[in-house]
Design brief:
447 residues; 6 strands; 3 domains; Arc Repressor Mutant, subunit A; mainly alpha; single chain
């Protein structure tokens, strides 16, 4: 019996072509990425021409006259750029103001023995940008047959330097080095030495009190003392990161009494087909030239079509958001209505992944401010009722109005929310309270 058979079947398959994949990638791009991409393809493809942005500037100026709160400059660069090739006159020399140079300069002034000074300088070069030393580096010195006592003396000398906490091998040691300069056996020191920092960060005062015999007031005082310490001693010597500015992709504004979604394409170059190369494609008889121009023309047309599809998808998503969150945009409430990616996808009759790509990294500017598009997607609690964002806002309002001497427990918060028509579990309240950065009722109690 033969195991090889022939058969025919009819089936449908969806294959992603390179053009479709790139179209999906353009939909995912934020404003700066799209601008960089268009500039790159304009340089590589001679068929693509960029129009004069003067008309865009005048159109944006006209929009600014109609929308009073729209005062940002969309034509400003999104990312700042520092030219480090030429130092600004009078600027600080980063090479001489590094943490390593600062530590070595202090060591030179301490009149140490040549051996300790050499090892201490070596350790200073191993200190990372946050001011920490790795235990592996110290173990490496031991493998080089450097005496353990000499390594320990050099380490102690480094840890005595400024900034306080430098040369520590862990966060706990860094904090203890800073507390050690006060020469006092404080509750903060006892908490760190007992390894109870995780409990303190979660404001679980009960285990700390039982293990160390401290009162709630002493634990809160220690919490404030630890919070005032510097967990990254080398932070002051790190170069400043360039400032990143957000450019909104969409505007929602009321113009002539009608709410509108405005696609922010004022910063994008106006892409069009070159008339010269279009005529050349029709007139030339060289096969290679015609093949090259056809390929570039197809790429240019596809880019223009992809831009239109991207703008259309973004606008349609924003229009659904505007309709669902109209009370928010009109200023009637600061709370959001429940809305999910799948519900928007169902309304637009597209796949949820398309909506996800469309809102990823995009921003919307309205009268209330500039928000990520994902901010407006807030699921309802327990699958029904108000959105999670609305419950969090109401919970924050209740906590702001509580008596600090008798703070509300999670169970009491549940009861008050239920009186307002919102039924949530106690563990849900505890979760939202923690996401708001607020501790338990014990941690919030003040006398």
């Amino acid at each position: 019996m033969s195991l090889i058979t022939l058969k025919t079947e009819l089936r449908q398959e969806l294959k992603l072509t390179p053009q479709l994949l790139q179209s999906m990638e353009m939909l995912r791009m934020n404003s700066q990425e799209l601008l960089d991409y268009l500039n790159t393809v304009s340089e590589e493809n001679p068929v693509i021409e960029q129009g004069d942005p003067a008309s865009l500037r005048s159109a944006y100026a006209e929009l600014q006259q109609k929308v009073s709160w729209l005062d940002g400059d969309v034509f400003a660069p999104t990312f700042t750029h520092e030219d480090t090739s030429q130092a600004e006159p009078g600027a600080m020399d980063r090479e001489t103001e590094t943490l390593c140079a600062f530590l070595c300069d202090q060591l030179e002034r301490r009149h140490l023995s040549p051996k300790i000074l050499a090892v201490a300088k070596y350790l200073s070069e191993l200190v990372d940008e946050d001011g920490y030393l790795e235990q592996e580096d110290l173990d490496g010195l031991a493998q080089l047959h450097v005496p353990e006592g000499l390594i320990q003396e050099a380490l102690e000398e480094v840890q005595r330097l400024e900034p306080p906490g430098v040369g520590a091998r862990s966060l706990e040691e860094c904090l203890l080095l800073q507390l050690g300069r006060s020469k006092s056996d404080s509750p903060a020191r006892r908490i760190i030495e007992a390894g109870l920092l995780p409990e303190l960060s979660r404001r679980h005062y009960g285990p700390i009190s039982r293990q160390l015999g401290l009162t709630a007031e002493q634990i809160q005082q220690a919490e404030g003392e630890i919070a005032a310490l510097e967990p990254r001693p080398g932070r002051a010597f790190q170069p400043e990161e360039p400032t990143i500015y957000v450019r909104p992709d969409l505007f929602v504004a009321q113009i002539d009494g009608k709410w509108q979604v405005i696609l922010n394409e004022y910063y994008l170059p106006q892409i069009s087909l070159s008339g010269y190369y279009t005529r050349l494609l029709q007139e030339t008889e060289e096969k290679e030239t015609r093949a090259y121009l056809r390929q570039k023309m197809r790429q240019a047309k596809w880019i223009i079509d992809s831009l239109e599809r991207r703008g259309s998808t973004l606008r349609r998503c924003a229009e659904v958001i505007l309709k669902a969150q109209m009370p928010f945009f009109s200023g009637k409430t600061g709370e959001l209505a429940p809305m999910s990616l799948s519900s928007v996808a169902s309304t637009l009759e597209v796949h949820p992944s398309t909506v996800s790509r469309a809102v990823q990294g995009k921003y919307l500017q309205c009268r209330q401010g500039t928000f990520p598009l994902r901010y407006f997607f807030s699921r309802s609690v327990n699958g029904q009722g108000p959105s999670r964002q609305a419950v969090k806002q109401r919970l924050a309002a209740l906590l702001r109005g509580e008596d600090p001497r008798h703070p509300l427990s999670d169970q009491e918060l549940c009861r008050r929310l239920e009186e307002e028509g919102t039924v949530v579990a106690r563990r849900t309240v505890a979760k939202y309270r923690a996401e708001l950065g607020l501790g338990s009722s014990t941690a919030r109690r003040r006398r």
